[in-house]
Amino acid sequence: MVTPALPTDIPSLWQATSVARPAFASASGDQSFDVAVIGGGYTGLTTAHYLSKAGLSPVVLEANGIGWGASGRNGGVVSGKFRLGFRDIASRHGIETARRMHDLGLEAIAHVGEIIAELGIEGADYQPTGSLRCAHNAHTLEQLKTEAEWLRSALADTAISILSAEEVAAETGSHGFTGGMLNTHGGVIHPLNYVLGLAAGLKAAGIAIHERSPVLSLRREGAGVVIETPAARITAGQVVIATNSYSDLTPATAAVRTSIIPFRSAMIATEPLTGTPGAHLLRTGRSYTETRRMMRWFRKAGDRLLYGGRGAFGKTDRESAFTALEKAMVRQFPELAEVKVTHRWSGLVAMTLDSLPHLGRLDDRVVYSVGYNGTGVALASGIGRHVADLVTGRQPDLGLITRQPLHPIPFYALREPAVRLVAGAYQFLDAIGR
């Protein structure tokens, strides 16, 4: 059996500002646990936490280091939204389903604060400052007004309000928006410190975590599953797959790999802004997104401005993607023209066919939870307790997350050109103002 070559750590602002990393050995020898969790990100770690609380013995097997994947590379936005909007959910599946999904989002946000307090994750620097969607033209502002009114009337969400162009400009420092929709739910976080804090909390509780331990194969044997890593043979009663966009690292997670479209998202971070012309920008500490289909997002992290977006196609970083981000950032914030960009990095977002996360069973011994579609900080960690429920025989009702199966992507081999085609269409629609 050939051991795959593992990628190295990805340099980022989060890596440069992280807390001390807890150390975990690679798996070795023969071991036995109640549950083996594949993936050491938010979902895998919180699942192990709640399995332990239920009296089971879990082991977390991470192919690289804790925080190597999306949990340590994302923009650090804590949100309870789904890529499929609540109004769309209501029109397709009914208002009660939309209400359940909305509640799940709020529960996931609340869970972030709860588990930070429970495990004492001080370095997470969670700030519940909310978010602001910035309309890039009059058409999208009208859409935001309609959405806000629907959320207030249909879901009784009073955390939503509409801001004028002047109010958005005063808050962001950018005069390129026609208005925006403020949502006071959620906030921002240091994503790598958050996942490292989760791992440290589990380690303190005696839960087994192994880094640099890619799962090479799974096979049923007797009443359980045998999991092979390069240096270990682990027997478990059940397995949880929590590998999300990185489900193609080994063949062991092939059963979910073809249901996910990895979409690369790139980020840049500036030097500290104090003493520069950009010092006044983004003064509330919220996260911000624009309404274009090929969305850009931005926020402050400490005294730096982070700017990110989709469209960094391919399997590796490309200088052209970072250059495009820098140009977009300066167009939006001309004050940053002479400000140095100090960090550039990217990671994969797990898109699904129906734009929703999925929790379910492959069979009586294997559970999966994947597909957060770019909103995974709160959802991926909040779902861990529900994964544990499913493992222990309960039937959690997470609305569409558990009611709909994880569908394979048709013509999966053509996913990369298909992504480029869709992205090109989105860019055209953005360019003509639709």
TrEMBL record:
Membrane-spanning segments: none
Alphabetical keyword list: Oxidoreductase
Coiled coil ranges: none
Pfam annotation, one family: DAO
One function term, GO molecular function aspect: oxidoreductase activity
GO cellular component terms attached to this protein's record: cytoplasm
UniProt keyword annotation of Oxidoreductase present: yes
Record domain FAD dependent oxidoreductase: where: 34-390
Gene3D superfamilies: D-Amino Acid Oxidase, subunit A, domain 2, FAD/NAD(P)-binding domain
InterPro entries: FAD-dep_OxRdtase (IPR006076), FAD/NAD-bd_sf (IPR036188)
PANTHER family xref list: FAD DEPENDENT OXIDOREDUCTASE DOMAIN-CONTAINING PROTEIN (PTHR13847:SF281), SARCOSINE DEHYDROGENASE-RELATED (PTHR13847)
Protein name (record): Glycine/D-amino acid oxidase-like deaminating enzyme
Biological source species: Xanthobacter flavus
